[in-house]
Amino acid sequence: MKTIYTLAFALATLTAVAQENRNNQPLPPVATPLYTSDVIIKNDTVDQQKVRLAVAFNGWLYAAFNTEDAVNNKGGITIRKSIDNGITWTTLDSYFTTGYRYPSFDIVVAGTDTNSLTLYLAGVNYSPASGNYILFVDRYNATTGGFNGSNYNLSAGTQQIYDVALASDHMAPAVGTSPYGLGMLYSRYTSSQDSVVYVGSIDGGSTWGYRYPVAITGQYFGKLSIAYGRSASGSNGRYFGAWERRAGSNARTGNIYSSRSQSTVDGPWINPVNLDSISATMIGLCKNPQIACSYGTADNDSGSVTSVVLVQRDYTGNGSDYDLLGFYNKRSHFTNFWYRLDVVNSGENDLQPDISYDITNQAFEATYYDSTNGKLPHITNGFNLLIPSSWTTVNAQYNDATGNLKAAYPRIESNYAATGQAAMAWIAQNGTNGVAMFDAEYNITSVNEPETGLSLNNIYPNPASTFITIPYINETNELATISVYNQLGQRVISEQGGQTKAGITTRTLNVEQLEAGVYFCRIEAGNKTITRSFVIAR
Question: Mind listing the pLDDT tens digit for each residue in 10-57?
Fold first, then answer.
């Protein structure tokens, strides 16, 4: 159980009183959410090996995991959806094919209304018999589950595709994309050289018209990650990537490199920079890079985009003690000036980091696998990284069981419709098989309000289009003011409520004039304040 601190209204510098988000100077608590019992995304009799998680603008959840039945020589991918915050899951699509494996895949859900909501699945199809690899991108109607086809296919023959990663700019579209864009990175083997390649779409995934080499080496590439970044000073938007380069195919660790698109999302990428070279104790000892970037219409305190890459560092050089370290760049739209940061640098064995950006609270959310204690912690840091190596522990262990993790590879995503709070997925061991699990920072069954004299139930409908209804209780003997803010912290609606001694007061606000997006309803009465997020969908 923990106390969560709500939004400081995005760009606090635009408000009359400067307030920091929950990672610097947290606001008084307005609710006490609870992590709940771990949810099995889908019971299965086969081995589930990796899980990916995506969250739509309205809070709908999408999870995908790959499966393998070695005895019957079958591999597959299953995509599941939850519209009730992860309590129940239904299958969007599932295939399980004899003679094939799907060793790498990623998902993204994009769109700001349910009519156009689209799920993208990038995957690698591998035939052990022929040794052939195919890279593909499938599209689904994320509301109905209908299959919209596969419009990108790369037959790589026997040249192995190591990894693939997807990202989208749909929450803050880059200049020139319509209605939004997507970016994909993949790493590929050849007998003479390996390569990292970027493929981009600026038309919502209808076509993939841009392909650029990002890196080429005579050594070996492996896992990689991609993220989108945008700010007021970098309004064109960029895609940023991070990947591992190893000296041998069986090398346990290697170097970490990063690059980005040069000036636009449909343009070439700049020369890569070797990140681990900035610290003598990290050179050649890193693996599993994950990148996240700040995005939106706000600059950080350095007038740019903040980018963070987390890695596991082999402290002893023999694989017995990994630390969770990383790198950051607060002017990543303009420079290659990266610096080291430490997250966990201790005697415990910390593996498999993941990181994402929470636009609502302007913060980075991260998780990792503490294999020494069998825990999956949730940590956070503000996007200005005022103290880069000081991360706040939101929860030291959101997984209920400590003895069933082996290759957890946890994933973390921000839920826009839950005030930016985090959703998590990971792989637990169920006997000899893996099983995909889910939990969330928010309580997926209810929210307990503190005894403050002011309480606010959930706003409805959510998403909304013309009106929202706000049920609240005000026992403060002060007039209540109801305000609506956009993601920039600008007040777009203000109406005065009234006093109540008991029971629920219900107010209805006309929001028809607001553009589609995420908004925040704030009720103030005396020195009491409560905030809830809601979504406008068109």
Answer: 323 222 222 223 333 232 222 333 467 799 999 888 999 999 999 999
Give the separation between CA 10 and CA 520, rounded to whole angstroms: 10
Task: Name every residue whose Cβ is closer than 8 Å to that of residue 519 and which is 6 or more positions away in sequence.
Answer: 484, 485, 486, 487, 492, 511, 533, 534, 535, 536
The alpha carbon of residue 67 and the mean position of all alpha carbons in its chain are separated, in whole angstroms, by 22
Rounded Cα distance between 107 and 418, Å, is: 20
SS3 letters for 436-467? EEEEECCCCCCCECCCCCEEECCCECCCECCE
Q: DSSP state, 31?
A: B
Instruction: Find out whether 239 and 266 touch, Cβ atoms under 8 Å.
Output: no
CB within 8 A of 280, min separation 6: which ones? none
Candidates 304, 305, 310; CA nearest to 355 is 310
Give the whole-angstrom CA distance, residue 369 versus residue 347: 14
- Tell me what percent of the residues of the chain surpass a pLDDT of 90: 68
Question: Locate tokens 């503490």: which residue?
Answer: 370
Q: Is 50 buried (19+), middle (13-18) or exposed (0-12) by CB count in 10 A? A: buried
Q: For residue range 215-239, what is the model confidence (pLDDT) as tens digits?
A: 999 999 999 999 999 999 988 999 9
**Mean predicted lDDT score pLDDT of the chain:** 87
CA distance 531 to 9: 9
Closest CA to 86 of 321, 438, 379, 383: 438
Residue 86 and residue 438 in contact, taking contact as beta carbons nearer than 8 Å:
yes
Cβ contacts of 452 within 8 Å, gap of 6 or more: 30, 528, 530
Contact 352, 304 (CB under 8 A): no
Please provide residue 295's backbone torsions phi and psi, each rounded to the nearest 5 degrees: -145, 160
345-384 pLDDT tens trace: 988 999 999 999 999 889 999 999 999 999 999 999 999 9
Give the residue from 446, 506, 456 showing the smallest Cα distance to 476: 456
Q: Tens of pLDDT along 458-493?
A: 787 877 888 888 888 888 778 888 988 876 667 899
Q: At 1, is the secondary structure helix, strand, or coil?
A: coil
Q: Are 238 and 265 in contact, with CB atoms under 8 Å apart?
A: yes
3-class secondary-structure state, position 416: helix
Q: Which amino acid is at 189?
A: Y
Q: How far is it, in rounded angstroms, from Cα 119 to Cα 144?
A: 11
Question: Looking at residue 445, what is its pLDDT?
Answer: 35
Q: How far is CA 455 from CA 32, 204, 244, 292, 452, in A?
A: 12, 41, 49, 35, 7
Closest among 85, 140, 94 to 117, alpha carbons compared? 140
Q: Which distant-in-sequence residues (6+ apart) come within 8 Å of 338 by Cβ? A: 258, 273, 275, 278, 327, 328, 329
Q: Under a CB-based contact definition with an 8 Å cutoff, are residues 480 and 493 in contact?
A: no
Backbone angles phi, psi at 319, to 5 degrees: 85, 10
Neighbours of 64 (CB within 10 A): 26
Contact (CB, 8 A) for 48 and 437: no
Read off the pTM.
Answer: 0.79
What is the C-alpha end-to-end distance of the chain, expressed in Å? 37
